[in-house]
Write a structure and sequence with these properties.
The structure is a single chain. The chain is built from four helices and no strands. It has helices spanning 3-23, 29-46, 49-68, 71-89. Helix 1 (3-23) packs antiparallel against helix 2 (29-46), helix 1 (3-23) runs antiparallel to helix 4 and helix 3 packs antiparallel against helix 4. The protein is globular, with a radius of gyration of 13 Å.
Length: 91
């Protein structure tokens, strides 16, 4: 496995973990959001257009939600973003 492939696998594992932790309310919105943006940046450095496009969509969606919603509404709508990420990563 090349170093790029290893980094890619680590990013996917991180995404899986952070999505599970946010859903279980173990981590905060800010931690979740920061991890998603880090993943987008890291994937952009590696290539892989479909995953990069997914992360661009996800981070754009999170930004919109952050400015439009708060509290339980923000949490619930973020779960929809998580569901889409999980469906596309683990399809």
């Amino acid at each position: 496995m090349s170093s790029d492939e290893q980094v890619y696998v680590e990013i996917i594992q991180t995404l899986r973990t952070v999505c599970e932790q946010y859903r279980a309310q173990i981590i905060s919105w800010s931690t979740f959001r920061a991890t998603m943006f880090e993943a987008k940046t890291s994937l952009g450095d590696l290539g892989g257009s479909s995953m990069r496009q997914l992360m661009i969509w996800a981070t754009d969606s999170l930004e919109l939600l952050e400015f439009a919603l708060a509290g339980d509404e923000l949490f619930e709508e973020t779960l929809n973003v998580i569901a889409e990420i999980e469906a596309r990563i683990w399809e």
